[in-house]
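Standup notes, structure subgroup. Blocker cleared on the magnesium ion input:
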Amino acid sequence: MEYVVETTNLTKVFGNFTAVDKLNIKIKPGEIYGFLGPNGAGKTTAIRMLCGVLEPTDGSGKILGYDLVQETEKIKSRIGYMSQKFSLYDDLSVLENLNFYASVYGLPRVKREARIRELVAMAGLTGREKEPVGNLSGGWKQRLALGCAIIARPSLVFLDEPTSGVSPTGRRVFFNIIQGLARQGTTIMVTTHFMDEAERCHKIAFISAGKLIAVDTPDNLKRNALEGFLVELELPSAMDKIKDIESLPYVKECSIHGPLLHVLLKEERNLYDLQRTLGVKPRPIIPSLEDVFISFVKGSKEGEKNA
Ligand SMILES: Nc1ncnc2c1ncn2[C@@H]1O[C@H](COP(=O)(O)OP(=O)(O)OP(=O)(O)O)[C@@H](O)[C@H]1O
Ligand SMILES: [Mg+2]
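Run returned:
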């Protein structure tokens, strides 16, 4: 199978609102596929369709070779899905949660004990098996939720914002686990709002207002996605100057990054125009993923205004 996920014009309409608009995506086996986009972009809606839990309004797709509309039961039993509000039972223990999901996913009884021990270790919960899940803090809960989602060793896993509300260390540990799974051949589609996590994906798809705007590797996106020349500069009360800077004819975009302004110029030579206008020296910089995403979001908003 060349692609584990392949969709053609996948669309979801709620009433007269199009949440996912003609989505075409292809995911290869073993890929960590990052799904990024602003709040309300349609990420969760798209993932729910890919998991076979939400019927598309239009379009089609194959998941692990199964038809997304006709074969949802086959899909559901073969994938792992960790939803945005991951569904652990707080008053059950670590072990009870894992046992529950083992039966949900139909893991044969003889395989349970060893598999559960393995996942308890993966979650860093060895010795805490009897503790109620409600006592666990964010990072542990999240790793346990991942353990529940992959208990039957699915070859394809969907993770919807698995690391929201988790500390930076916890997030890093979690992504190490994800990378380990991918190395063993598991395909992972993961949504995130964190750029350091996006960096660790093999491919990133960016969606805004239901539409796919770009798909590429993090490196290619940084190299190619911004058209223009990016500089940073320091100005007193920078926040108040964004609008003025953006109205300069040779400026495409201006955004704030901590204490600094990032300005996307039309061309390299505009650096001198900017320097003359502002009286400070801008420094050329290599775009970060954050720059790329800010630009995507701005670009798609402009597109909506002009539509
Ligand atoms: N069942 C529903 N009925 C009506 N509108 C819905 C429904 N589910 C989602 N939406 C709308 O569809 C849009 C996309 O929502 P979705 O949850 O897919 O976005 P998201 O990209 O996952 O956002 P976030 O980053 O906040 O999780 C939103 O405007 C949302 O309000
Ligand atoms: Mg969501």
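Discussed briefly. The mean pLDDT is 93.
Next: hand off to the docking folks.
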